[in-house]
């Protein structure tokens, strides 16, 4: 009673009504029995020790018991306040420990502005060099212990080498509860700390307490960065409350890693079932930077009662947010050359390519309805796709996975494709695709021929421009150059077709010549066959054609013997030859 004004006032009130001993209860005592025991020891002169872990608890208990200087010089309240300001608020390690241990007396600590002072001190030290937080300035060389900590006069200070990066404090504050972490982030934001650092701290905290967030994200491994090697116990958090709180704390920033983090939060949110406001806000945040998203991030599995493998409704809402936020884009179809040269439409084209890949990925799901596929394809404006090759590929995959679709259903889906925006390869593939309806194939062939004619006309214009005078040629060439660029390779196809046509003509003429020669040889062979059948002696046939036949061995000897003497045989043969020349054609056999 001599040290505590609270107990003294209670005793005076109950003394008049109770003659003997009586019992009282201290409701809502901050810090519990441990804090009361500390105050009781102090009152009875027992030695007590102030530490960073018990200072806030003792401070609140001394205020509750009214242990001011009015009830004793150098009372517990004054000692606690001096220790807090001189020791705790100037040291990063002690400040972190004090904040983590204040959960049992949070209302009283907030009422006494102790919590605010500690949060402000932490926020200020985040912007300051960690080597100034009550630790030695020399942090290198022989002052390091074998474990990497800093030595001061041979004593381990518990501090590690300061990281050169600005995220050295992420690990230390990740041991706070959700409410305390939220208060700290808001305090740092009020002090003007950069949103990039705040976002990094929030992402670090979320990955630590949301295991599902780190399993599918490629987070770089490594040791946790911290400037103090003191033992901290991770807090038990409610993942649903944590995710909803993190969503409200996240700053409005853009970046590939940040967009990937948001997609991970959305995936976890669909698993644990957060409130609709939180989910809508996450979808809106992702829609603001959808052009930075990746395909694997958008493939969010469906955890509800839906039959489909992926949550296509969620992706559709995200794209709607993106289109609504892109208010500066022109939603009608401009010329393709203007679309390619417009820098403001680059995000729209990136999202269009991303959506084409997404539709192609989910098209293999046998439970995906044709109406949902058409909705996903038409959620973006028509001007977002300079080429429709991605849509054609997605439809081809869908038709392959759904062979039971009728031609009418396929034709309705094919209406989303503009055949004039198909490339050469896509047209060539579509014209031979058996999965497409016949009417669609005919349309593809029609537009393919039209492209060829337009490309050929463009080539002729270029040739005329080259043959024109210099001034007119430059004007005509500049006018038609832009048109040819838009043909997507059709000019090259026309040139190749010309070369092939010339080769085919040469081959056709050569084949004609070979056919004529073959017919002549055939006629001659027929004549030879007829002559052979009409003549009985082979020697007569040989004489008719003016050839000599090799004689047998007996005849050969006779001829050799006869050749030694004079014989009129040459004259006879010459006479026969002159007599039969009018009845035969002379050609040689060999």
Topology, please?
Layout lengths: L4 H11 L16 H12 L11 H10 L11 H13 L3 H9 L5 H6 L2 H13 L22 E4 L2 E6 L9 H4 L4 H13 L4 H15 L1 H5 L23 H11 L6 H17 L3 H13 L6 H4 L13 H14 L10 H6 L4 H17 L7 H9 L10 H13 L5 H8 L9 H8 L6 H30 L2 H16 L4 H45 L3 H7 L8 H10 L6 H12 L10
Helix pairs in contact: 2-3, 3-4, 5-7, 7-9, 9-12, 10-12, 13-14, 14-16, 18-20, 22-23, 23-24, 23-25
List its traits.
coiled coil; 2 strands; ubl conjugation pathway; single chain; rod-shaped; disordered C terminus; two-stranded antiparallel ribbon; NPH3 domain-containing protein; 590 residues; mainly alpha
Describe the structure in brief.
By secondary structure, this protein is mostly helical.
Gap between N and C termini? 146 Å
Percentage of residues assigned to helices: 55-70%
Order of helical and strand elements: HHHHHHHEEHHHHHHHHHHHHHHHHHHHHH
Number of helices, where a helix is a run of at least 4 consecutive DSSP H or I residues: 28
Task: Give the amount of beta strand, in percent.
Answer: under 5%
| Average of the residue pLDDT scores | 76
Approximate shape: rod-shaped
Largest sheet: 2 strands, antiparallel
The count of DSSP E runs of length 2 or more, i.e. the number of strands, is: 2
Which structural category do the helix and sheet elements fall into?
A: mainly alpha
Strands ordered across the widest β-sheet? 1-2
Poorly predicted regions are: 134-151, 160-164, 218-223, 328-341, 473-477, 479-488, 551-590
Radius of gyration: 48 Å
Describe what you observe in this structure.
With 590 residues, the chain is an all-alpha fold. Among the domains are: 5-130, no CATH class; 166-220 and 235-275, no CATH class. The chain has 28 helices and two strands. It has helices at residues 5-15, 32-43, 55-64, 76-88, 92-100, 106-111, 114-126, 170-173, 178-190, 195-209, 211-215, 239-249, 256-272, 276-288, 295-298, 312-325, 336-341, 346-362, 370-378, 389-401, 407-414, 424-431, 438-467, 470-485, 490-534, 538-544, 553-562, 569-580, and strands at residues 149-152, 155-160. It has a two-stranded antiparallel ribbon with strand order 1-2. Strand 1 and strand 2 (155-160) form a beta hairpin. Helix 2 crosses helix 3 (55-64), helix 18 runs parallel beside helix 20 (389-401) and helix 22 packs antiparallel against helix 23 (438-467). The N and C termini lie far apart (146 Å). 27% of the residues are buried. Mean pLDDT is 76; it is low at 134-151, 160-164, 218-223, 328-341, 473-477, 479-488 and 551-590.
């Amino acid at each position: 009673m001599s040290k505590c004004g609270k107990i003294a006032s209670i005793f005076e009130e109950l003394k008049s009504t109770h003659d003997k001993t009586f019992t009282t209860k201290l409701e809502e005592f901050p810090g519990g029995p441990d804090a009361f025991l500390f105050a009781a020891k102090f009152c009875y002169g027992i030695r007590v020790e102030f530490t960073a872990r018990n200072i806030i608890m003792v401070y609140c208990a001394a205020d509750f018991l009214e242990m001011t200087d009015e009830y004793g010089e150098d009372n517990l309240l004054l000692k606690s306040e001096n220790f807090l300001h001189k020791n705790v608020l100037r040291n990063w390690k002690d400040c972190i420990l004090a904040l983590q241990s204040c959960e049992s007396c949070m209302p009283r600590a907030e009422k006494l502005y102790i919590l605010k002072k500690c949060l402000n001190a932490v926020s200020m030290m985040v912007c300051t060099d960690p080597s100034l937080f009550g630790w030695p300035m020399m942090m290198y060389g022989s002052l390091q212990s074998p474990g990497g900590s800093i030595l001061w006069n041979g004593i381990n200070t518990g501090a590690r080498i300061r990281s050169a990066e600005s995220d050295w404090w992420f690990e230390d504050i990740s041991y706070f509860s959700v409410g305390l972490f939220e208060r700290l982030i808001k305090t740092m934001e009020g002090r003007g700390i950069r949103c990039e650092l705040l976002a990094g701290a929030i992402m670090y905290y979320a990955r630590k307490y949301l295991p599902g967030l780190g399993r599918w994200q490629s987070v770089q491994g490594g040791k946790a960065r911290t400037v103090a090697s003191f033992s901290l116990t991770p807090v038990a958090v409610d993942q649903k409350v944590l995710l909803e709180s993190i969503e409200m704390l996240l700053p409005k920033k853009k970046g590939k890693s940040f967009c990937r983090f948001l997609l991970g939060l959305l995936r976890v949110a669909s698993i644990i079932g957060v409130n609709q406001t939180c989910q809508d806000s996450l979808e809106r945040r992702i829609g603001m930077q959808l052009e930075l998203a990746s395909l694997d991030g958008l493939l969010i599995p469906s955890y509800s009662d839906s039959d489909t493998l992926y949550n296509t409704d969620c992706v559709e809402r995200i794209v709607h947010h993106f289109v609504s936020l892109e208010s500066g884009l022109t939603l009608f179809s401009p010329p393709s050359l203007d679309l390619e040269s417009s820098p403001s439409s680059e995000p729209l084209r990136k999202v269009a390519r991303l959506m084409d890949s997404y539709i192609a990925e989910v098209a293999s799901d046998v439970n995906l309805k044709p109406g949902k596929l058409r909705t996903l394809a038409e959620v973006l404006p028509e001007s977002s796709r300079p080429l429709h090759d991605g849509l054609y590929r997605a439809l081809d995959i869908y038709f392959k996975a759904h062979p039971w679709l009728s031609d009418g259903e396929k034709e309705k889906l094919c209406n989303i494709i503009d055949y004039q925006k198909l490339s050469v390869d896509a047209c060539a593939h579509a014209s031979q695709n058996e999965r497409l309806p016949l009417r669609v194939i005919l349309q593809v062939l029609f537009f393919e021929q039209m492209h060829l004619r337009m490309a050929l006309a463009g080539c002729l214009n270029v040739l005329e421009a080259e043959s024109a005078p210099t001034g007119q040629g430059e004007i005509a060439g500049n006018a038609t150059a832009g048109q040819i660029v838009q043909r997507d390779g059709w000019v090259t196809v026309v040139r190749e077709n010309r070369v092939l046509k010339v080769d085919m003509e040469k081959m056709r003429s050569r084949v004609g010549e070979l056919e004529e020669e073959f017919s002549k040889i055939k006629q001659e062979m027929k004549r030879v066959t007829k002559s052979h059948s009409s003549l009985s002696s082979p020697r007569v046939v040989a004489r008719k054609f003016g050839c000599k036949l090799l004689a047998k061995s007996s005849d050969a000897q006779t001829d050799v013997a006869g050749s030694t003497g004079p014989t009129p045989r040459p004259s006879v043969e010459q006479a026969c030859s002159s007599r039969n020349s009018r009845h035969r054609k002379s050609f040689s056999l060999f």
